[in-house]
Amino acid sequence: MSGKKGNTSDSRKNRSDEQTMRDVQREDAPVLKIEHMSISFTQYDRGMHQTSLPVIRDLDVEVHGGEMVAVVGSSGSGKSLLAHGVMGVLPYNADMGGRITYCGEELAKERIKKLRGREIVLVPQSIAYLNPLMKIGPQIRRGSKATEARKKLRGIFRRYELDAGVEELYPFELSGGMNRRVLISTALMEEPKLVIADEPTPGLDLAVAKRAMAHFRELADMGAGVLVITHDLELALEVADRIAVFYAGTTVEEASVQDFEHEETLRHPYTKALWRAMPRHGFQYIEGTQPYVKNLPTGCSFAPRCPHCGAECAGEIDYRIVRGGKVRCIRAE
Ligand SMILES: Nc1ncnc2c1ncn2[C@@H]1O[C@H](COP(=O)(O)OP(=O)(O)OP(=O)(O)O)[C@@H](O)[C@H]1O
Ligand SMILES: [Mg+2]
Asked: Residue 150, SS3?
């Protein structure tokens, strides 16, 4: 009997130890971890044959609490799809593979539904995400009439030079820049653990763009994981901790902001080309264009534009750790 009791309390203790271990692991776990993400679209060509268009392949990104990661890459490289994949808002003809974990646990469909707009917020790229039939104030407060919510929104609007009257307006009555500031306000209304901001700054003047980036930085400093998608590498380098570089539907490099101080500390030829294209480094033009998914070369997607490419670049290219960062290039050392 007593043995039984001992066993029960032992197993209870073991269970609570396991629970504690899991809690510790969760605390240490990245807020967001994306492993081998793939997204493809089902399309029908003229003969009504079904084809699959793989627009994201083997994409890895992770963001820790207190960290701001900027995703940079050319248009069409899959940045918005990454955001929509995490948020569970991909179009119906998209098929997603790979694994997404949030605070150490899988982010399944039901879970993201519960967390979306609360713990996990998206600042979408397009102002088309605002409801055109709903006044701005109730829309951003998500219908809440509580004095607290109203006060908070007033405060946020003041930061973005939007006057209180804007709350009573519809999105079509605002300029593009005002709508963009309204979109940014949605992220600041909640106390999110994960913020994904998809190109939050176009159309804003430099001072407001910097203020917006500084606010995302503040959210990270308060403990949130922040993923900012941007074309503006220069602005990203001022506020982010790490940069993830996208090319043709995958991550080609993850580097710390310090790595961008010199070209030699970067790892991938595309990242180096982006570095040379920055105004302060001489605005050097990158020859060629990013291949469309239907015409991807085998092996390295950047090979056709790469000055260092050789026959071996047509083989499989692993994403590997080099000098504390990650790179998808066999030549990087
Ligand atoms: N609904 C869709 N059906 C088919 N292809 C799509 C669909 N949505 C996006 N794509 C393709 O997926 C690729 C990545 O698109 P995505 O919008 O993620 O690019 P992006 O990096 O955000 O570009 P930008 O910097 O212009 O915002 C593009 O080639 C695009 O044409
Ligand atoms: Mg986009």
From this structure: helix
